[in-house]
Automatic annotation (TrEMBL):
NCBIfam families: urea_trans_UrtD. Pfam families: ABC_tran, BCA_ABC_TP_C. SUPFAM superfamilies: P-loop containing nucleoside triphosphate hydrolases. GO terms for cellular component: plasma membrane. Residues 6-242 form the ABC transporter domain. Keywords: ATP-binding, Nucleotide-binding, Transport. It comes from Actinokineospora spheciospongiae. This is Urea ABC transporter, ATPase protein UrtD. The keyword ATP-binding applies. GO terms for molecular function: ATP binding; ATP hydrolysis activity. It comes from the Bacteria. InterPro entries: AAA+_ATPase, ABC_AA/LPS_Transport, ABC_transporter-like_ATP-bd, ABC_transptr_urea_ATP-bd_UrtD, BCA_ABC_TP_C, P-loop_NTPase.
Length: 242
């Protein structure tokens, strides 16, 4: 492991003069399972949009030596930064294996998709194991349960060699069992990667976060362990005080 980490310095995003992200600085280490929380409108999604090239931003966001802000979306993906959205975007007509194969082959050119292979590429096999869908590899993605689709989408980032994963409410709509499975999955992938989870589910956060950043009105309100941010009176005020 190279010990790279995600470092944001004074990130700012404005929409027509409205400041949605107002000078956010934070560092997420490899092996960290960082939860990004905060009330609606705090700027969480916009911050992730800035890191993944969907909106323009000022300041700096680096992973290793690479500047991520204001780059093209596909370039950021190639730099090893992957993202999921609340609604999983998998190819429903294709099997689990084909979905992973397409993601893995995105950089290899279209011919790989047409070739019939007798063996499954190593990175795809590894991803299947990590996301726990090995037994369902030949199932159509469209028939998977909601949670399984989310895991498949995470697997698609893994085969693209994502080193930084930004996950938007990965457990929204999941059963308690699926939430727990997802937490275990995030622990497995987080051990060797940098993971940021935007989340509203506080129970899930308490169970799995190794660190938490609380955003409020575009700024970092509090940061620390779960216990530290929960004990922070400013956090209590934002969540309970109104
Ligand atoms: P969160 O994800 O924490 O709920 P968002 O990042 O979605 O917050 O939104 C932060 C603020 O920026 C909100 O006030 C929202 O209305 C505003 N905002 C987000 N996207 C846009 C946009 N494209 N144009 C104008 N305002 C936006």
């Amino acid at each position: 492991m190279n010990g790279d980490y995600l470092e944001l310095t004074d990130v700012r995003v404005t929409f027509d003069g409205f400041v949605a992200v107002d000078g956010v600085s934070m560092t997420v280490l490899q092996g960290d399972l960082r939860f990004l929380i905060g009330p609606n409108g705090a700027g969480k999604t916009t911050l992730v949009d800035a890191i993944t090239g969907l909106v323009a931003a000022s300041g700096s966001a680096t992973f290793g030596a690479t500047q991520l802000l204001n780059q093209k979306v596909h370039k950021i993906a190639r730099l090893g930064v992957g993202r999921t959205f609340q609604t999983a975007s998998v190819f429903e007509e294709l099997t689990v294996l084909q979905n992973l194969d397409i993601a893995a082959g995105a950089g290899r050119g279209p011919l790989t998709l047409l070739r019939r292979r007798s063996s499954v590429p190593e990175e795809v096999e590894e991803a299947l194991e990590i996301i726990g869908l090995g037994d369902l590899r030949d199932k159509q993605a469209g028939v998977l349960a909601h949670g399984q689709k989310q895991w498949l989408e995470i697997g698609m980032l893994l085969v693209q060699n994502a080193r930084v994963l930004l996950l938007d409410e990965p457990v929204a709509g999941m059963s308690a069992h699926e939430r727990d499975e997802t937490g275990q999955l995030l622990r497995r992938i987080g051990a060797e990667r940098t993971v940021v989870v935007v989340e509203h589910d506080m129970d899930f956060m308490r169970s799995f976060a190794t660190s938490v950043t609380v955003l409020h009105a575009g700024r970092v309100l509090s940061e620390g362990t779960v216990a530290e941010v929960q004990a922070d009176p400013r956090v209590q005020e934002v969540y309970l005080g109104r």
